[in-house]
Design a protein that fits this description.
The chain has six helices and three strands. It has about 160 residues and is mainly α. The chain has two domains: about 45 residues, no CATH class; about 100 residues, 2-Layer Sandwich (Alpha-Beta Plaits). The protein has a three-stranded antiparallel β-sheet. A hairpin with a 5-residue loop joins strand 2 and strand 3. Helix 4 packs antiparallel against helix 6. This is Multisubunit potassium/proton antiporter, PhaE subunit. Keywords: Cell membrane, Membrane, Transmembrane, Transmembrane helix. Belongs to the CPA3 antiporters (TC 2.A.63) subunit E family.
Length: about 160
């Protein structure tokens, strides 16, 4: 019964918060309307979410998000320095193939999105068999180190979250 009324509780909370942010106030009116939207949208879209991934360790998702935010901020500064102060011929862009241990499409999507959100890297393609990602790095003097960093920093954590 509860699953039918509240099929995606995190989506409900997120939609409520986003609605309040759009309205630029956390007053009773926007909160109530955001809650109504947050309850209706997941119910109407539940048919397109038949196979929700089990999140085994939700607290690790919070830690993952904090790491991603930290990396986004740090890499913004790094890329700004590279663009402003490096000579163009000193940058070493590289195409990097990342073999995936992840199997769930949702986890692979989060990994690809994380790579793309992090300045200086871009997920370009997912192999048809879903076993490798093609990533472009703006400056990768050692492409193997970038690959290993992505696997250790992001993919390992996603494997723990979506066990």
């Amino acid at each position: 019964m509860m699953q039918r009324i509240l099929p995606h509780p995190l989506l409900t909370v997120m939609l409520t918060i986003v609605w309040c942010l759009i309205n630029n106030e956390f007053a009773p009116g926007p909160i109530l309307l955001g809650l109504i939207i947050g309850l209706i949208v997941p119910v109407l879209t539940a048919a397109w979410w038949p196979d929700r991934p089990p999140v085994v360790r939700p607290l690790r998702m919070i830690a993952y998000l904090l790491i991603v935010i930290y990396d986004i901020i740090g890499n913004n500064l790094t890329v700004a320095m590279q663009v402003l102060f490096y000579r163009k011929d000193s940058l070493r862009p590289a195409w990097i193939v990342i073999p995936l241990d992840l199997k769930r499409p949702e986890a692979i999507t989060i990994l690809a999105g994380t790579i793309t959100l992090t300045p200086g890297t871009l997920t370009v393609d997912l192999a048809q068999d879903g076993c490798t990602l093609l990533v472009h790095a703006l400056h990768a003097p050692d492409p193997d180190a970038v690959r290993d960093d992505i696997k250790m920093r992001y993919e390992r954590r996603l494997k723990e979250i979506f066990a």
